[in-house]
Amino acid sequence: MAVSPNALKKWEKVRDHALGLPGAAEEHPWGESVAKVNGKVFVFLGVRDGSYPLGVTVKLTDETAHAHALACPGAEPAGYGLGRAGWVRIPLEIKGAPRADLLCDWVEESYRTIAPRRLAAQLDPH
């Protein structure tokens, strides 16, 4: 399955944004890319090799953002029971997928939920 260039460009922008957040690091558990802060995952980036549909999974505790994300085409609560904790999987290759800047906003919200306060505070202007 070939990955669409547009979806891949979005994915790369989201990945770069996630890894640019304070204390963020990329790891590859289960063969997929994740961004962690303080040893905890704040965004699942999946795989980019076309073996699985390209998408991102974020934790959205804000009710409005959570509902907005779930309203995206093909979006669904994350598997393995993570959906009950606010995790949402958003596919990137479906027509009408969210723009990269909105995805980056959701990644940042997920980061703020997971990161220690001292790191999350670095995102706010002084």
TrEMBL record:
Gene3D superfamilies for the chain: 3.90.1150.30
Give the matching InterPro entries. Answer: YjbR-like_sf, YjbR/MT2646/Rv2570-like
Which Pfam families would you find in this protein's record? YjbR
Q: Would you say which domain of life the source belongs to?
A: Bacteria
Stated name of the protein: Uncharacterized protein
